[in-house]
Structures
1.
Amino acid sequence: MRKRHENLINLLVVEDEDVQRKLLTEFLRDAGYRVFAAPNQKTALQILEDADINIALLDIRLPDADGLTLLKNVRSNFPFVKCIMVTAMNDVNTAVAAMKNGAVDYIVKPVNFEVLREKLKNLSRDIVFEEKLFSGLRDKVELPSVVYRSDKMKKILQTALKVAPSETPILLTGESGTGKSLLARIIHEHSKRKEGPFIDVNIAAIPETLIEAELFGYRKGAFTGAYEDKRGILELANNGTLFLDEIGELALNVQVKLLKSLETGRIIPLGASTEKIIDFRLITATNKDIEQMVKESKFREDLYYRINVVHIYIPPLRERREDIVPLLDYFLKKYAEIEGKTIKGFSADAQALLVRYPYPGNIRELENIVHRAVVFAEEEYITKEDLPDYLLKIKSDNESISLSELKELNLNAAIENLERELIKRALEMENGVKSRAAKRLGISERVLRYKMGKLNLE
């Protein structure tokens, strides 16, 4: 009779050899696991996307990828899957390297089934414990500011709550305005350090000449203007969580010093001769392609791997449109109360425009649009007339171009018009401050000024 664990574990076997894959699958099913099998990386990643896998047995050699590449993909996209590498005897060094990159163990071919059984038994016990811990956290969640309906955001919040009790460094990526700061705070509030401080720092908001002093602190007289001792941000985060937003803006020389502090748990304030012990949980965030920055030597590779133990990507609002309507309702109630107005909702045509709009500024832009609409609204429903003019120019997917528009259609002109509209919108959202508008657009201020001159927007 087939055994069954108290809490059934989902296990993925990735093995390209048909006989070996079948033997492993049958043995593990007889041992009481729910088993999925894949002959290559492509199939494995699809299974991981569709099924709630707990443990993955990864062969080092696959037809469409090597085991280290697959491990990296699993660790980046499914951080709570525990990976065991399966290797031939002459690949043991590769397996050891894989463990340094996040694998929990390895086993040598030909597989000793009893050894594998024992390893899985221990891992399963840990997984059951973690699931019970997560269930307890999940039952206590009260997050009225987290408004969502999409499966994508559901998975992101589940991941955040799972990782919250650990001390694991987390890297949050995604466009500006997607809610990275809010997610960081959620993780802190459900961590072991929730009674400690949550220090939220935007690296881009601190002048480059001051960032080192702000992070590490300084002693009186350390430099001109240092009139008294000042504790640094890293010290202020002691026993709590430090959230460094826009980590991609950190200068290379400061990256070196930050990495050393993370590795040693110590800092030396500017002008000091003695070290201070620091102890905090680190969460970082960026809207940049930080992997590309590493390739271009604009971000240190060793620091990248230090902060990117668990990676959570927050998709833009246009990729999770199911969240738009509940967000509109949430912000409508919020700002109607603030402005002292009684507004029941949005008219059908206004809501159609709001749902159709791509929101380059994401949730932050949606919130600003609703706040503005509430201010302008004079009726009990927000209408098209209460919305910004640029929303009225957005065409629906099935709305055709008129013949007059078609005659004037020109690709270069269309691109210029789009650039002009985006720049005007960014400047409006940032109250005309070019440095902030450039940052919102993902370009340098110099490029922004050039484009403004070219497009006659000065």
2.
Amino acid sequence: MSATAETLLRVKSVLRNSLKLDESALLADEMPLVGGEYDLDSLDILLVITNIEKEFGVRISEGTMDRKAFATTRTLADFVQQLGPTK
């Protein structure tokens, strides 16, 4: 299931907040999250997951998410979209 434009924008907002990026920081839909410009490490990923849970009112159980979800901004948004209803 592909993410809606709203989900993509909310995920980008979570990424900006989690990584303490300025609102003007460009977060392209296909930007790599691991190994890319911002090169998220394991602590960054944990923070992003926690903030996604808060923002979207979901619970991400261990084993639900794999590295593919953090391939790009869009794959992360697609993963969040498949979690179901959001706030």
3.
Amino acid sequence: MNIIRVKAFPESKKSFIEEIDHQVLRVFIREPAQNNQANKAVLNAIAEYYSIPENKLRIISGHRSLNKIIQILE
């Protein structure tokens, strides 16, 4: 079970990911933090970053926070 710590930055001008440390990411996304749009965009960006399907990712903690803990399912 792999765990990633994420700091999300919704409503950014550009969408990109910065790797701060091993399994610690800063995810900048354009979507607003409304109606779960930002969470979906964060999962999509991480899936593309690691080249894995989006359904292999799950938010364990931080659904309504900018700091999230995401699990990569095997």
4.
Amino acid sequence: MPKIVMYSTLFCPYCMRAKALLDSKGVDYDEFRIEGDQERMQEMIQRANGRTSVPQIFIDDYHVGGYDDMAALDRAGRLDPLLETAARHATA
């Protein structure tokens, strides 16, 4: 199971921002594009407690939420510790 997962669509500007933020942190993540994939979309909705907007981002089993949520964690200094925890688990 990947440690960082983002559900997205191709032309979503918030998805692009989320990818840019994760890329700037130098972390690997799995991106699941949900357009046209009803099974993956249902998986996202279930994991995200009913949220249907994209992106939906998960670090380990923690549901970060969307881009705005992840950016708020970053501004508060709480994103890097979550990413470091995920990185430590990946190398363990």
